Amino acid sequence: MMKWVLLLLALFGASPTASFTLVKSVRFSRCLRAAATDCPLPGTAKLDVDWKDLGFEFRPTKSHLKLEYKDGAWGKPELVSEPYIKLHIGATALHYGQACFEGLKAFAHEDNSVHMFRPDENAKRLKSSCERTMMPVVPPELFLEAAREVVKDNMAYVPPYGSNGAMYLRPLMFGSGPRIGLQPADEYTFLIMVLPVGDYYKDGLAPIPALVIEDYDRAAPRGVGNVKVAGNYVADLLPNMEGKKKGFPIGLYLDSSTQSTIEEFSTSNFIGINKKEKKYVTPKSSSVLPSITNKSLMDLAKDGGWKVEQREIPIKELETFEEVIACGTAVVVTPIGKVVKGDDIYNFGDGKTVGETTMELYTRMRKIQNGEEEDKFGWNVQVC
Ligand SMILES: *Cc1c(COP(=O)(O)O)cnc(C)c1O
Ligand SMILES: *[C@@H]1O[C@H](CO)[C@@H](O)[C@H](O)[C@H]1NC(C)=O
Fold first, then answer.
1. Which residue of 10, 98, 138, 373 pairs with 367 in a disulfide if CB–CB is 3.0 to 4.6 A?
2. What range does the record give for the signal peptide (predicted)?
3. Which of 66, 105, 228, 338 is catalytic?
């Protein structure tokens, strides 16, 4: 019996002292290679809600993907069913915020094939976040393979075509090795968590009011605003809650050094639509997070004959926009009905109806994601 245990341990390259955790992780993890190579059907899992009623919140699925970096090299990706990690109390992510993340979606098409939306862009952005925070880069090919495998393993949880939901992928990278002096960790953990999410706009799109945040900054010009690090979100938590209490579901940040040009909304990019001049305007700044949704909408706008400008936008220019959009993966677009800055109020349209350009961009993007319109830019990456 003991011989078998030792053999098993040797097979997994562990020392006998690690036997307890090892048995557990053997039970809960499977090597990627053992994952299904055939393609299961999306939308077959039994959830506690109807696919149509899914929101945007955590929900258990079959597995997440885990990949560890130790001794200067990446290990093998594993699919793990327990939603927990065992973490060293000295981990740099906990003490110094050495952590970044990504967000992307996968959609089921009518023929039950499942496609991720521009995962190559997330791989690139993760690389720049890792470089800025001194974390090892997940090679883009490895990122894509890992994303594909974890979606495949959780295929039953991909909302079916017609539900208007999606599988949300949340890649996460952090320093898991201990360090107390200020230095990068020497061990890292990369995870991809997946969860089914619903259509943000079950009851249709509706404009919301935005508040210009004047008492706080989200990002500094030469700081980390242009990479997707965890700390950017904690900086926005309090301003966000204060704005919500005042009746504004979304906050708009100006540039932190002069407070005179528009940067971005708390977790989404800013787009101004100037109809008279047929212009799509989005800020250029060193402290704005380059949104993949914004990048995609820019291509759709150009394709539709719009002039696309990426430049500084003085706050006063808000007067020239008929439509203002906040954009990001979770929603694609959020129409902004008005922007309030102290006593100044900028209105867009009647504040109640969704602008036609916003609607057109949204519809076209969603159709491409759902496989209902030709993917002429080659954005969809098939999982299987
Ligand atoms: C993630 C994020 C966005 C949206 O980016 P997408 O790639 O479109 O999802 C916008 N602003 C900030 C600050 C973000 O972190
Ligand atoms: C819009 O997206 C592009 C490409 O990702 C980015 O360079 C630009 O800064 C974005 N605009 C805003 C407001 O973030």
1. 373
2. 1-19
3. 228
